[in-house]
Amino acid sequence: MTKKYFFKYKGRQVKLLFSFLIAGLFLSWAAPAISQPQTLTVIRNQNGPPGTLKFSELRSILKGEKQRWNSGAKVTIALMKTTTPIGKSTAEVIYNMSGDALLKFCLGLSYQGNVHAPKFFNTTSELEDYVAQNPGAIGVIDQPLANNDIKIISIDGKSQFNL
Amino acid sequence: MKNSILRITLLVGLLPGLKSYAQNTQIRGFSAASANYSDKKISFGFSEQDVLITSDLTDRLSFLGETVFRFDDHSEGTKFGVEVERVIMKYNIRGNHNILFGKHHTPINYWNDTYHHGKLFYPTIDRPLLFIANVIPLHTTGLALQGHDLGKLKFGYDVMVGNGLGSSEIEDNDKNKSLTIAAHIKPAENLRIGASYYYDIISKGAAVHYHQDDQERHEDRAIDWKTVQNIFSASTAYFGNKFEFLGECTLAVNRTDTTCYQHTFGYYVYAGYKINNKVTPYMRVDDVHFQDGEIFYIKDNRSAFTTGVNYQINYLANIKMEYQYMYSEVTGNRNRISAQIAVGF
Known about the structure:
The complex is a heterodimer of chains A (about 160) and B (about 350). With about 160 residues, chain A is α/β, with parallel strands linked by helices. Chain A is about 40% helix and about 15% strand. In chain B, the strands form 2 sheets. Chain B has a 16-stranded antiparallel barrel. Chain B has a two-stranded antiparallel ribbon with strand order 10-11. The interface between A and B is large, with 41 and 56 residues.
């Protein structure tokens, strides 16, 4: 019964898929240019985030895939605005996205009910203050300023990276 | 005078508290306007306006509300209706495990759970025919357990118990509960593979909410037969920096006392290729086939081929232009050229 049902309209499906494949032949163009990334440093609040992470773990966390640290503190993400050089590099190096694509990705997280989408800042001092004041916060800047309330997370054993 | 100073002092003292409640509340909106040429006629229109509110209430409890304003033929006066699409209270139990209570997008497939009313996120102008043909239950009011990104495969799950089709937003119309079980994995970057099962018993006489057509018109339709519904769905989604792919299929098996088992099968396949960060040409193939004798759904075998271009103005706006050929068992062939600007704000 089921087999008969599936083959009944096979002809129409084949035509549809054929037209789909033909149209696919027209789709082949050049790759986008990516600007030179700058050195990045990952900082953390003293309460919650670990002192070391693998790069793959960092990317996963910054993409909103981890809600809580092992300590139980809520993961909060702080990024520089994608219009700044640091924010643009963060998008390209860590997220492997353009700045606009990152913002749309974050908007999508909110739409899907993930209210813990990253917070964006204009200056590194604002970002550092936010990370210092919020347990579980993690952020990305170029190099840390003199703030005793934040720590650096080493990524794959390095305190700074740019891939 | 002293009383006034005391009141002002108290008010000022309370303000920081009020601010702390409001600081994590975000209000977002989505809308789209379109023009299309079909049957030797150009039509302009806009589909709906979607208001999304999210808020962190405590360290573990959050709220999401989504309300849509849309054209409604049956509405008095302005011809616009208001529909609450989602009201979700989410409590984080532990790690990536959550319990959700309220009205949800049924987590039955990728498109329904990821895009739904956010036309800004749609890779094409309209939803796939699977939605327009009312094959899948779009919303469920009930309780859900949800987990995501667990283990190396980034396993995710949803188990949802709800009132089921025919129920109102405030009470169940019968004793039967719908059950949705969904699971997915993300074995590689930007790749998500999922499957789901939905079960419901729809009572005789239940009024089921359904879409009339692809112009987002909605209506309730009374079901004349008690129907046992089993829906199986599978999806694969890949949205990389260059290539985009989304394929989903659904097999719905409806059983009534008079027609026994009736099968409905539908699928769509979307593919796009990003020329650069702005321009993505795409295509989509849709097909929905109802078995002869189907009485729960409105039987109208349909298939469509869609091709177009998506131009990203920025992350809050895009323009899509597309051509669609659609075959409908009821209305025949249709060729349509459409343009749409979708925005978020």
